[in-house]
Write a structure and sequence with these properties.
The complex is a heterodimer of chains A (551) and B (159). By secondary structure, chain A is mainly α. Helices cover 70% and strands 0% of the residues of chain A. Chain A has 15 helices and no strands. In chain A, helix 1 (12-43) packs antiparallel against helix 2 (55-86) and helix 2 (55-86) crosses helix 12 (371-401). The longest helix of chain A has 37 residues, at 452-488. The N and C termini of chain A lie far apart (60 Å). Chain B folds into two domains: 5-34; 45-157, Immunoglobulin-like. Helix content of chain B is 16%, strand content 35%. The N and C termini of chain B lie far apart (66 Å). The chains are: A mainly alpha (551), B alpha+beta (159).
């Protein structure tokens, strides 16, 4: 009989599937990181790209590889390992689906990358119409999304199997979280699939002449905001479930962790208009409604902050810590598996505060499309999330390859985390400051014809280049550690840490696994926030726009 | 479901602050009229040059409206028409802009004027310039290879 209870170790066949995803993710990190270095150097005004490479081509490479490829591949790889560890080894069918999804995503990435490198798709990773890329670029993106659906489906079947074999029991917390994140992803990607398949592909193939720009953007941002929560929730999995085990403590509350994940599912989708606040064609009352819904994610965020620091304090006091903050000293600062994600956690505090400015109905106008926004998501995605992902890979890669994280590599990882923090203070700090002065995002170096205002921005751009260079050094360290853990580290057993709830915690109610209820509420909220504005856009649509290739 | 006493205090305080914040934003939007630019007027992007008021870009004095001047801009890759305007300090100006080709941004650096220009739509914002000096208008939405060259100027002078 096949056992599907919790395993201490990920099955080697599942480990291979996860590792395949990680190889692609870390290759994307290397190339995308290099593209990022080139960008900050160009924008300092002291460096020019050799012809025929253009700034916007490099920018597209950076965004697509780090924003879409690195994140999606890492998350799917991590979540397969998490399912295999907590809900039991994948069934052969699920593993086959996992491989099919992996190859579809990889082929799709290669198609999109080829078009970007041939300069047929310098449309950035948001690919706004009516800039028109080559059809193969859109086809490639479609395969990435479809591949992720197949992978996600495999994870869901694993969860369903566990529920069937353990009737009336509460599912393992990590599996539950994976299910929430994949449901979020499935519901969100419907938007981007709709605009790519129904609008952009037929239009780029010449089957239709024009495209409705506002509807396309609206569908994109229906997807674009939950996308950032799809990145964030795996980091939360680490913070809620894995970090407590690493420090030797307990999960603060299993129920509250589940509740905060459900709240993210509900409130992360019907909010895309806060990316479209300065756009024509949308009634401001609907914008305000979505702004209010956006701010509801403050609630699960506050719950998360409380739980995490609650875990840390409980652990420290157990060890005999005295005074108000004595417990901080008891934390295992020498352990990269804890410290690197911890730096990410702390970064999320200013990052969240900046996000509240961005989503505010009026303040958005001060920072919209300035480099402040770039500074913002280099704190959220490129620090809080990615440092946590690096922290995960420092134990997960050796766990999967049957090796161990040595003291030497642990030290290198600690240096990597600190360098990242220093580099990001320079780069993101300067981006925030220059953005408040009006410097635009996604723009090559320019003095705008000797404008006095644009001249003021240049010192900040040099600070960004300094920070970006430090970050690139940190990326090289990550790659050295990755290669070591994948191929060279000594053989051994590295733990896959999964925390347990505190003994004092109450039993988790089964209501959290009532998916009909949660998906139902999600759909109702989406219909409420989007139906009338979309009908308005369709009924009052202007003549469509033809495609342009202006790069 | 059990919640720690401190967590209850923390959440009540947090949610309370959030409600105050949303009320401030809401009162500013609906009572004081500080809404983001959200013009609902549409236009045929192929016929911008022959559609009023975009057939005559530039600054125009108007009578009998809530604003004193209309400042009309037409954007296309990679420039704005007009390339420079002079506006008096303290007068109320309605900025009206649209694009003939792809999406562009319309940001006046150092002010709160910041809106998206999308083909098929008119973007509007009513404002009063309170400081004199030269202000850079720039495109802050990627539009192609000349994106970072796309700019115009507003010079604000004493009345």
């Amino acid at each position: 009989m096949r056992s599907t209870t919790e395993k201490m170790k990920v099955d080697p066949r599942d480990a291979k599937l996860s590792m395949a995803h990680f190889y692609v993710a870390f290759i994307a990190l290397a190339l995308g990181g290099l593209a990022g270095l080139l960008q900050v150097l160009v924008r300092s005004g002291n460096f020019q790209l050799p012809a025929p490479i253009t700034y916007y081509q490099v920018l597209t490479v950076h965004g697509v590889l780090l924003g879409l490829v690195l994140t999606t591949f890492f998350i799917i790889g991590f979540q397969f390992a998490a399912m295999s560890r907590t809900a039991g080894t994948l069934s052969n069918g699920a593993r086959k689906s996992g491989w099919l999804g992996f190859w579809l995503m990889t082929i799709g990435t290669a198609m999109a990358a080829a078009m970007v490198l041939l300069n047929k798709a310098s449309v950035l990773f948001t690919f706004y119409a009516p800039l028109q890329a080559h059809p193969i670029f859109y086809g490639g993106l479609t395969l990435v999304v479809v591949g992720s659906w197949i992978g996600g489906g495999a994870m869901l079947t694993s969860y369903v199997r566990w529920r069937k074999q353990n009737p009336g029991k509460v599912s393992p917390l990590l599996s539950f979280m994976v299910v929430v994140n994949m449901l979020l992803w499935l519901v969100a990607t419907i938007g981007v699939a709709a605009t790519v398949l129904l609008q952009m592909l037929p239009w780029s193939l010449g089957l239709v002449d024009t495209i409705d720009v506002l509807i396309s953007r609206t569908l994109f941002w229906y997807f674009g905001h939950p996308l950032v929560y799809f990145w964030l929730l795996p980091a939360y999995m680490c913070w809620y479930v894995i970090i407590p085990r690493i420090i030797g403590g307990k999960i603060f509350s299993d129920s509250l962790a589940r509740m905060s994940f459900i709240l993210f599912l509900l409130f992360s989708i019907p909010v895309g208009f806060h990316h479209q606040l300065t756009e024509p064609g949308i009634d401001p009352a609907w914008k305000f409604l979505q702004v209010a819904l956006t701010f509801l994610v403050v609630i699960p965020s506050l719950m998360t902050a409380f739980s995490l620091f609650g875990t840390f304090e409980m652990y420290g006091r157990q060890k005999g810590a005295k005074g108000l903050f004595g417990w901080l000293k008891m934390l295992p600062w020498g352990d990269a598996r804890f410290t690197v994600p911890f730096i990410g956690m702390v970064t999320f505090i200013p990052a969240g505060a900046g996000g509240m400015v961005n989503a505010s109905h009026q303040m958005n106008q001060v920072v919209h499309n300035t480099i402040w926004v770039t500074g913002h998501f280099h704190l959220t995605l490129a620090t809080a999330v990615i440092l946590t992902f690096f922290g995960i890979s420092y134990w997960l890669i050796p766990h999967l390859t049957g090796r161990v994280l040595t003291k030497k590599m642990n030290k290198l990882a600690l240096i990597q985390g600190c360098l990242w923090a220093i580099g990001m203070i320079f780069m993101s700090g300067a981006m925030h400051a220059a953005g408040l002065l009006g410097a635009p995002r996604r723009s090559s170096f320019s003095t705008y014809g000797g404008s006095a205002q644009a001249t003021e921005w240049i010192p900040y751009q040099i600070a960004q280049a300094v920070g970006g260079t430090i970050l690139f050094v940190a990326i090289i360290l990550v790659l050295i550690i990755f290669i070591n853990l994948a191929f060279f580290a000594p053989k051994g057993e590295q733990e896959f840490p999964v925390g347990e709830a505190a003994e004092t915690a109450e039993k988790t109610p089964l209501i959290f696994e009532n998916w009909k209820l949660w998906l139902g509420v999600t759909v109702v909220l989406i219909l409420f926030a989007y139906t009338i504005p979309l009908i308005d856009m369709i009924q009052n649509a202007p003549p469509g726009q033809k495609g342009f290739k202006l790069w | 479901m059990h919640m720690h006493k401190f967590e209850k205090i923390w959440l009540v305080f947090g949610i309370g602050s959030l409600l105050v914040f949303l009320n401030v934003v809401g009162v500013s939007a609906f009572y004081m009229g500080n809404q983001p630019p959200s013009c609902l007027t549409t236009i045929d992007p192929e016929k911008v040059d022959t559609t009023k008021p975009f057939n005559k870009p530039g600054l125009h004095k108007v009578e009998g409206k809530d604003w004193d001047y209309e400042l009309v801009f037409v954007a296309s890759a990679f420039s704005y028409n007009p390339a420079k305007v002079v506006v008096q300090k303290g007068v109320k100006v309605k900025i009206m802009a649209t694009t003939k080709d792809v999406i562009h941004g319309f940001e006046v650096a150092g002010t709160n004027i910041n809106m998206m220009l999308e083909p098929g739509y008119v973007s509007e914002y009513v404002t009063t310039f309170k400081k004199t000096g030269e202000f850079l208008i720039l495109c802050n939405e990627y539009c192609g290879v000349g994106h970072h060259m796309m700019s115009s100027k507003i010079e604000v002078v004493e009345k």
